[in-house]
Amino acid sequence: MNAAPEMNAVFTSADGGMTAAVARYYDTTVDLYEDLWGEHVHHGYWDPHERSGTDPADRIGATDRLVRELVGYAGIPAGAHVLDVGCGIGGPALYLAGTLGATVEGVTLSEAQAARATAKAEAAGLAERARFHRRDGLATGFPDASFDVVWAMESLMHIEDRAAFFTEALRLLRPGGRLAVATWSVRDGELNAAEQDLVRMILRHQVMPSLSSRREHERLCRDAGFEGVAAADWSAAVARTWDPQYAALPHFERSKTMMMELARERGVDVLGYFHAGPLMKRGFDTGVVTYDALRATKPGGRAHPDAA
C-alpha cells in the first residue's frame, strides 16, 4: 500500500494545478540548478563504499554514470528514436544523441528548460539530433508508434496521473520499443506518522503530488500492457547525492541575505530546493525514500534479453 500523502495545497491552486506549479518551479530555478549541479540535473551513481568527493568533476562523473547505467539496464540501442519525457536542460538527451547516435525529442513543462536545452544542443553541434519542446508529457502531440524508446529520468514523480503516463508511453512506442524510467519512490507498506510527515515535506518542497512505491510502478506498467517489466533498487548507489558537501547547499544555507534575495527575485517556491536537501538525505538514510530503475517492453517485438 502506498501511504504517501498528497501535495500541500500551496502547489494545487487554481492557476493551473500541479502542471503549472512544476513549470513555474523549473522556470525560476533553471540557472540555479545548472550552477549547482552542472549539466545533469539529477542524482549521481556510485559503487558501494565509493565516497562522493566535493570536486565538481566527481559530480559530473557520477551524474554521467547514472545515464549510462539506465542505458545499460534498459538496453537502449544505438541510433534509436527517443522521447525524453521531462528532459530538463538536456543532459541525458545530449548523451543519447551524441554517444549513442540517437535522435531525441525532449519535452518539458518549463519554457526556460527547453530554451536552455536547445542552446546546449546547438553549442554541441547536436541540434539536428536533439530537439526540445515545451509540452506536457501526457499530451505531446506525437502520433502512435513514433519512438523506439520512451525515457523518463526523474520526471515520473512530478506526474499526477501515473497510470496515464504508462498508457501514453505504450501508445508512443513502436512494437518492441523500450521504456526506461529512473524515479524517486516511497518504501512499500504503511508509513508511520513521522514518516508520513517527512514525505509530505519532501513533496511540498520538490513540487510533487505524491510518491508511489516500486511495486505500484511495476503494477501500473503491467496494467498499461507492457511486458518484460522489471525494476531495480538503486537507492544505495544514488543516496550520497544528498551528502551536504556534494549537494552544494551549505554556503547558501549559511547566508540568510542570499536566500532572501533569491526569494524576492524568483518567489518563495525557489527556496524549496534548499529545504529539500536535508529532507531527502533523511529520507534515504531511513529508507522511507527509495530510488528505482524500471524497464519494460511494448509487446510485438523482441524483449530485452535480461527482462524478468
Automatic annotation (TrEMBL):
Residues 145-153 are annotated as: SAM motif II. Keywords: Methyltransferase, S-adenosyl-L-methionine, Transferase. Residues 66-272 form the Polyketide synthase-like methyltransferase domain. GO terms for molecular function: S-adenosylmethionine-dependent methyltransferase activity. InterPro entries: Erg6_SMT_methyltransf, MeTfrase_dom, Methyltransf_11, PiNMT-like, SAM-dependent_MTases_sf. One of its GO terms (biological process) is methylation. Residues 82-91 are annotated as: SAM motif I. Residues 172-181 are annotated as: SAM motif III. PANTHER family: GERANYL DIPHOSPHATE 2-C-METHYLTRANSFERASE, ZGC:194242. Belongs to the class I-like SAM-binding methyltransferase superfamily. gTMT family. This is Methyltransferase domain-containing protein. It comes from Actinospica durhamensis.
